[in-house]
Every structure is written in structure tokens, then in C-alpha cells.
Amino acid sequence: MTERGRFIMDRYVWSVPVIGTLLHKTSIEIFCRVFYALYSGSGENIDVIKMAAEACGNKYMEHQIKTVALPMMIQKGAGITEAFEATGVFTKTAIARFHSGAETGTVKNTAYQLAEYYEKETTYKMRNAIDFIQLAISMVIMIVLTALTIVSSETATIRPKNPALGQVVVQEVVRPVA
């Protein structure tokens, strides 16, 4: 897949019902894990954000962070919350958590807690999605088997096999001799 194709796919894959939200939150979780592992708390963490964006696995999210968040932080002096919110790729929960972490000075721990939260949520929802898919497949199989059973029983009722057909029955007629 081309770079442009991957970018477009990553942008719109989040719109897919159920799976899209799982992939979106998984990307945020990976971003937060890498951010947590590399963040030092000093003022020079632009490279950390850049590396976390590259590691998240979503080209659209990476692009938004690199072209919107980082320039806002470097050129305009925006805080981490404002910059992340401007990207449009973080959920309201993530923005709220980063905001509280920035106010209390615990951005690193907030990133870890957010990663743990999204990991548990996506694992739970993925398990539910798999259960639903299994149920749907079972229902389809059941419907097909029921339809086949009905069709075969209808066929047997409409055209029963008659053993007398196809056989010539010869009866001997006995006439009395007078």
C-alpha cells in the first residue's frame, strides 16, 4: 500500500462501527505507553511526542500530531492539552486526563494510567465483538441448515418415491373354461 493510501485508510478506519473505535483507542493506548516510557518531565520532550506519534501505528494520528500539535507547542508555546486537543485525534477522555495531568505535574503517570485504561477497555470490547461475531456466524449457519431441511422435506413431500412406478405389473387373468 502506498504512503498516501495508508494515510487515507488510517484516517477513515476510525469511522467503521465497533472496530473503528477499538482501533482508535488502541492507537491512543500505544501513543501513551511510548510517551510514558520516554517522557522525562523536562522541557525538551518534543522528540518524545514525535517518537510516540510514530510508534502509534496510525499514519493519520502521526501526521496530525507532527503537523498540528508540535508546531503549536514550539511556535505558539501551547500546552500539551491545547496542542493535543487541536489535533482532533484524541478522545475527550484522553484530553481531560492530559489536562489534569498537566495541571498537577503528573503527565507521565497520567499517560500510563490512560494507556492502562484504554488497554482494559479495548480488551473488554474486543472480547464482546468476537462473541457477537461468533453468535452471528452461528445464527447464519442455523438459518442455512433450517432452510436446507425445509427445502429437502418439501421436495420429499411433493415428489414421493413410488415403488410401483417404473415396474410393469402383470396380472394373470384366469377365465373359466366352459
Defining key terms:
73% helix; 7 helices; 178 residues; rod-shaped; 0% strand; mainly alpha
In short:
By secondary structure, the chain is mainly alpha-helical.
Topology:
Blueprint lengths: L2 H10 L6 H20 L7 H10 L3 H17 L4 H8 L4 H13 L2 H52 L20
Plain-language structure description:
- It contains 7 helices and no strands.
- The chain has 178 residues and is mostly helical.
- The protein has a domain at 3-121.
- It is rod-shaped, with a radius of gyration of 33 Å.
- The model has no long low-confidence stretch (mean pLDDT 87).
Mean model confidence by pLDDT: 87
So how many helices?
7
Principal-axis shape equals rod-shaped
Please mark out the parts with pLDDT under 50 across 5 or more consecutive residues, or reply none: none
